[in-house]
Task: structure prediction
Amino acid sequence: NLKVDQAWTLAAATTVKGIVIGGVFERSAAVPAAAGPTDYRNYARVALKYPVGKHEFHINVGVAGSLSTTPDSGATQATLAYNYNLTKATKLYAFATRIDNDRNGVYSFLDNTPAGASNRSIAVGFRHNF
Result:
């Protein structure tokens, strides 16, 4: 009598005049382990990448709708990023991201963030793919 969560996802990407455009839409169903209603939520994200030589400029925005059993529990996330490709495997990067939660939203990249609180982050780093 195993109950599992489910998701239905549609995603696509294309390049238009050098700009890479991607998008995703997902409908999720969280099936409770004990008795109770299944919780549904819709997610969507659009991402753009504009490469110029060794430089990459990125922007993306994602929206998570409210849970079907919890009003005002959605959130919006936006990220601006820049990459400088030193080699095919190595890059320097910087990004800024922000999560804006609705009143009952609990999306976070920080521990113990209260419902409804927003999160912001700035990062600078070096990445190498082996």
